[in-house]
Amino acid sequence: MEIQVNNIVKTIHKKVILDHLSYRFEGGHIYGLTGINGSGKTMLLRALAGLIHLTSGEIIINGKVLHRDMDFAPDTGVIIENMSLLPQFSAFENLKQLSKIKRCATDKDILSALTAVGLQEQIYQPKLKAYSLGMRQKLNIAQAIFENQQLILLDEPTNGLDSDSVDKCIQTLRQLRDQGKLIILASHISDDLMRLADKQLKLSAGHLVDLTSE
Ligand SMILES: Nc1ncnc2c1ncn2[C@@H]1O[C@H](COP(=O)(O)OP(=O)(O)OP(=O)(O)O)[C@@H](O)[C@H]1O
Q1: Of 3, 36, 39, 35, nearest in space to 22 by CA
Q2: How many CB atoms lie within 10 A of CB 173?
Q3: Distance (Å, rounded) from C-alpha 182 to C-alpha 57?
Q4: Is the pLDDT of residue 214 over 80?
Q5: Using alpha carbons only, how large is the chain's radius of gyration in Å?
Q6: Could you report the per-residue pLDDT of 160-183, keeping only the tens digit for each?
Q7: Closest atom, ligand 1, to C-alpha of 39
Q8: Which of 18, 110, 128, 148 is buried most deeply by CB count within 10 Å?
Q9: Which pTM does this prediction carry?
C-alpha cells in the first residue's frame, strides 16, 4: 500500500486549510499526525479516505488517482468522527452488520478484532447504548481493522482510553504495521503519538513537517 499526495490544496470559504501539501506514505509504517486544533488533521484524513473533494492537486493510492479511478480509498478502515454504529446492537452484531456490505470478514475475524482491542468481555453484551466512551472507542478501532484493511486512518484513536487500553492499542497497531499495513493516526496529544508512531508529522500552516527527520 502506498499513497502519493501531490500538491493538494483544500480551501473552504476562501480559507486555505491544506496548502500545496505533498507527501508519500508507505505501507509498513505508522505515521503520527499532530498539530494544533484546527490545523487540518481531520481534513487531511478525510482527503486521504476520499471523503472530501480537493480544491486542487491529487492523491494517488497504489497507482490509482482518487476521484478519477475510484470514489474512495480502497481497502480502508477509518475512525473519523460521527461513526455510525448502532446503539441497539452489541459489539458483535454491529461488526456483523457492517461485514454484510463487503462480505469479506468472517465471525472469527470479528471476534479476533474485538479481542485485539480488549473488548473480549463485551462481545455479545451489553448493547452499544450502554457502552462507556472508552468501550465505544475500542469498538471504533475494531471496526477499522476487522476486515484486514490495508490502509487504516484513525482520528484521535486514544480518545477515552485508559492507559492500559492505550498500551493495548499501541501493541495491536504495531502488529498491523508489521504485517505491512499503512497506518495514519491524528492526535492533538503528541505524547500518545510519540509512543505510537514511527514517523511523526506536524501539520502547520497547511503543510506537513516531518519531525522524525529534523
Ligand atoms: N465543514 C466545514 N466548513 C467550514 N470549515 C471547516 C469545515 N470543516 C473543517 N473546517 C475548518 O477547517 C480547519 C481544519 O479543521 P480540522 O477539523 O481538519 O482540524 P484538526 O486539526 O483536525 O483539529 P482538532 O485538533 O480540533 O480535531 C478548521 O479551521 C475548521 O474550522
Answers
A1: 3
A2: 22
A3: 22
A4: no
A5: 17
A6: 999 999 989 999 999 999 999 999
A7: 21
A8: 18
A9: 0.94
The residue to which cell 469498538 is assigned: 139
Q: Report residues whose beta carbon is within 6 angstroms of any ligand 1 atom.
A: 12-13, 17, 35, 37-43, 188
Grid cell in block for residue 16:
486555505
Closest residue (by CA) to atom 14 of ligand 1?
40
| Distance separating alpha carbons of residues 137 and 157, to the nearest angstrom | 7
Place of cell 508489521: 178
Please tell me the distance between residue 174's alpha carbon and the centre of ligand 1 in angstroms.
28
Q: In this structure, which amino acid lies at residue 159?
A: N
**To which residue does cell 474512495 refer?**
72
Stretch among 52-66, 71-85, 91-105, 113-127 having the lowest mean pLDDT? 71-85
Tell me how crowded residue 26 is: count the other CB atoms within 10 A of its CB. Answer: 13
> What ipTM goes with this model?
0.96
Find the length of the chain: 214
List, for residues 57-73, the tens digit of each pLDDT value: 999 999 999 999 999 99
> Coil, strand or helix: which one is 49?
helix
Question: Which residues are CB-contacts of 159 (< 8 A; sequence separation ≥ 6)?
Answer: 133, 137
